[in-house]
Design goal:
Elements lengths: L8 H14 L4 E10 L12 E3 L9 E4 L6 E7 L11 E13 L13 E9 L3 E4 L2 E4 L7 E9 L7 E6 L8 E3 L16 E8 L10 E10 L3 H15 L5
Antiparallel strand pairs: 1-4, 1-13, 2-3, 2-13, 3-5, 4-5, 5-6, 6-9, 7-8, 8-11, 9-10, 10-12, 11-12, 12-13
């Protein structure tokens, strides 16, 4: 059974409208290219997003950020008034990922749902700077997004998912230069930011399975990154939802 939740629709639409309204006056603070974290608990295959039981079969399910199109994190400071939910800053994680059911050494290329997805997730509540990075604390179910199939095994219409930040946990989203789980890996000491935070399939819900972000990132020089960042924010409103 494919899990999907449409309750994010109103939130996503509101955020998209707010982003579009501020597109002419918002300031892109920074943009980062994201990559798989080398110390994921199910690595190999490498991944930046883990959503176990996404397909309703109880299996480990992971998605790699190391794609040709890439995944980017953009931090935007919104000009007054703030966005529709009252936030001053917004973090958007957007791009193309590849994944599906984890076979233990790779992804099961014959399993329904394995393939390419467009990821678009926005943190709009409780985003604040910390050191050289950012934290989102406390977690809030208004922080949400989508994972939409674009080229997968099976019918793409069956693999369109809403995802949410998991509230009420001690694992809020962080994006920090703190070497989190990089010790002993080639990326250690290279100035990478590490992003991590718990997720859920259900708005306001929690899961016994592992569902979270775990990735690393490097800054992309501005101003070219600024143009990408604003385009990424606009995509929240303009992306096509295939149902």
């Amino acid at each position: 059974m494919i899990r999907r939740c449409v309750c994010a629709g109103g939130v996503i639409a509101a955020l998209g409208a707010a982003s579009m309204a501020h597109a002419g006056s918002s300031t892109v603070v920074a943009t980062y290219r994201l990559f798989d974290h080398p110390d994921g608990n199910q690595n190999p295959p490498g991944y930046g997003l883990r959503l176990d039981d996404l397909f309703g079969d109880g299996a480990t399910t992971t998605f790699s950020f190391n794609t040709a199109q890439g995944v980017f994190l953009t931090v935007t400071e919104l000009a007054p008034p703030p966005n529709a939910l009252g936030g001053q800053f917004q973090i958007t994680i957007a791009g193309r990922v590849f994944g599906g059911r984890d076979s233990g050494t790779g992804h099961d290329l014959s399993h329904a749902g394995t393939g390419e997805y467009d990821l678009n997730f926005s943190y709009v509540m409780n985003v604040a700077p910390q050191g050289t990075g950012w934290v989102v604390n406390p977690p809030d179910q208004s922080n949400a997004g989508t994972l939409n199939a674009v080229n997968v095994v099976g019918d793409e219409n069956d693999f369109q998912f809403d995802i949410f930040e998991e509230p009420g946990t001690g694992n809020p989203f962080k994006f920090l230069q703190d070497e989190h789980r990089l010790a002993g890996h080639p990326q250690a000491g290279k100035g990478y930011f590490v992003g991590r935070g718990w997720l859920s399939f259900e708005e306001g819900g929690s899961s016994k399975d592992t569902q979270d972000f775990l990735f690393i990132g490097k800054a992309v020089p501005l101003p070219g990154a600024a143009m990408y960042g604003l385009a990424g924010l606009g995509a929240i409103a303009s992306r096509r939802r295939r149902r």
